[in-house]
Amino acid sequence: MNPKALFNISYGLYVITSKKGEQVNGQIGNTVFQISNDPVTIAVSINKNNLTHEYIKNSKIFSVSILSQDVPLDLISWFGFQSGRVINKFEGIDYRVGHNGAPYLTENMLSCIEAKVIQEFDANTHTVFVGEVTEADTLGTGVPMTYAYYQQVKRGSIPPAAPAFTKNTGGDTMNDKYVCKVCGYVYDPAIGDPDSGIAPGTAFADVPDDWVCPLCGVGKDDFEKQD
User: What are the start-end ranges of the E strands in 68-156?
Assistant: First the structure.
């Protein structure tokens, strides 16, 4: 099977949140879609290993915040590459608590959707939760973030728990991309980093040792090859 065939499936990019008791958590998700209109239902796909999965299973509610293209890459990295078991993802984040008790983000978001789970389906590594929409509102204007824009323009990487994640089993090549372990910035040799004097076509191994991540400022040692 050629996994590149799946790359042509269109995705959005969202922050999916839930609660368990007084605790809240959220994660980046790319699989959110409307199922029906009367009643209005949506579905989300969540990896079973994620803390958000545990919270949705427990509370039977979730909320979806729809990201705009202007959202900072570090916010996507914060919710996509960090674990709520280790950090409080909502510390320092602008958010509100919705009518269903789950939080939703307010900055760089286009809209929010609240739902209660009415059905769920086992999908091997993931669970598909179907929720009846209980509240929805617009938060701003702009263009919704897509996965294609995130990867091609923002040059972001894919969390291993995401449905669209594919693992590279080959060896190192001149075209290997490297991802910042702190903020998620991806160094692409085809693009380089012209603003820092790194010309397109420069392999990561040939980038000077004193080069730093253009987003968060950490050094080369904090990068790892993208799977």
Answer: 95-97, 103-105, 109-123, 126-138
Q: Which residues of 12-51 are buried (b: 16+ CB within 10 A; e: fewer)?
A: bbbbbbbbeeeebbbbbbbbbeeeeeeeebbbbbbbeebb
The pTM is what? 0.70
The Cα–Cα gap between 84 and 78 comes to 10
Backbone phi, psi, residue 138, to 5°: -90, 145
Question: For residue 147, what is the enclosing H or E element?
Answer: helix 147-152
Output the CA torsion sign for 193, 199, 203, 206.
negative
Chain segment 28-38, per-residue pLDDT in tens: 998 999 999 99
And the tokens for 221?
A: 């040692």
196 CB contacts (<8 Å, ≥6 apart)? 211, 212, 214
